[in-house]
Amino acid sequence: MGSSAGGTNGTGDTEGGQDVRGRHVTGSLAHRVPDLGALQLLLAVARLGSLGGAARELGITQPAASSRVRSMERQLGVALVDRSPRGSRLTDAGALVTDWARRIVEAAEAFDAGAQALRDRRDSRLRVAASMTIAEYLLPGWLVALRSQLPDTAVSLLAGNSTAVAERLLAGEADLGFVEGVSVPTGLDSAVIAHDRLIVVAAPGHPWTRRRRPIEAAELAATPLILREKGSGTRQVLDAALGGLARPLIELSSTTAVKAAAVSGAGPSVLSELAVGEELSTRRLVSVPVADVALARDLRAVWPTGHRPTGPARRLLSLTRA
User: Fold this and answer.
1) What angle do CA 231, 236, 241 make, to 5 degrees?
2) 150: part of which helix (H) or strand (E)?
């Protein structure tokens, strides 16, 4: 099949020809209709009867206003303003275009008000989902800083393991998440916001605390430990670093509970360095060196793929990097 002169642009219009109803058109609607700034200028000229006055009201120079009017006249193909030493007067065509412009500007103002209402509703709340270590030891400081910047934003925090955080985000139940696992969960984008290190700890008196040499990775892997539940970032990192773990001595759902069990002398554990600073300084727990294994990990902010955080979520993300 041959192509028509000018060709179609995929919308039923032709470029430099006629549309399917025989109307002459040139380019897209955006090229044929003046922008809002030009329409606002025309309305100001109609109201004030002066191009100079309209320019001052809109905060532009008179030459810039004249240039914009001429550009609008070329775009529409009609004269809009008669200029004289006594002022500026709309032509008959200019008066008609001004009536249309007023409706367009009013519609744009309604659009802007609606968009602002959507932003206000978005900014009125922030739902955060975070893995336990981040929720307990890092987020409180970030949220205090956020409140000083956005005092009217209500923040809710959902704490759980890294798997649960991903599920919350993908279900639309959280605006921003924080995880500490080995990799980024499927369906999420991420940014590294901090680094952490896991350490082996035990109560004073445990045989490991009296050893002169570090324990071997294989021994650690074979020893029943007090551990977080499956799905936690801490357990994922430890399992990946050791290539597998023995059956847990005790399995608990929070870092605080794991610490309490370790302090009681129930057995050794592996916890974030962030979580045990006080216990180490007061000697309620002792750090146990481990040979030939790296237990460092990245802490990440996460959000659904392709949906970069906006509003309060974006502000919180920036605070994590401050």
Assistant:
1) 170
2) none
Does 3 have pLDDT greater than 60?
Answer: no
> Please, which residues have CB within 8 angstroms of residue 2's CB and are 6 or more apart in sequence?
none
Separation CA 84–CA 80 (nearest Å): 13
The predicted pLDDT at position 4 comes to 40
In 3D space, the residue among 272, 281, 135, 288 whose CA is nearest the CA of residue 197 turns out to be: 272
Quick one: tokens of 263?
A: 């302090």
| 14 or 163, which is more confident | 163
**What residue ranges do the domains of the chain occupy?**
29-120, 125-322
How crowded is residue 221: how many other Cβ atoms within 10 Å of its Cβ?
A: 17
Strand partners, 156: 127
Instruction: List, for residues 104-155, the tens digit of each pLDDT value.
Output: 998 888 888 887 777 766 667 899 999 988 999 999 999 999 999 999 899 9
Token pair 């650690």: residue: 220
User: What are the Cα distances from residue 89, in Å, to 45, 64, 79, 83?
Assistant: 8, 18, 11, 7
CA end-to-end distance (rounded Å), the chain: 62
| pLDDT confidence of residue 116 | 74
Tokens of 230: 């499956």
Q: Is the pLDDT of residue 27 over 70?
A: no
Determine the Cα–Cα distance for residues 266 and 247; give it in Å rounded to an integer.
Answer: 15
| CATH number of this structure's domain 29-120, picked from the four choices 1.10.1740.10, 2.60.120.1680, 3.40.50.10210, 1.10.10.10 | 1.10.10.10
Give the model confidence (pLDDT) of 37-82 as tens digits: 999 999 999 999 888 899 999 999 999 999 999 999 999 999 999 8
pLDDT score of 145? 95
- Beta-bridged to residue 198, according to DSSP, are 272
CATH architecture observed for domain 125-322: 3-Layer(aba) Sandwich (3.40)
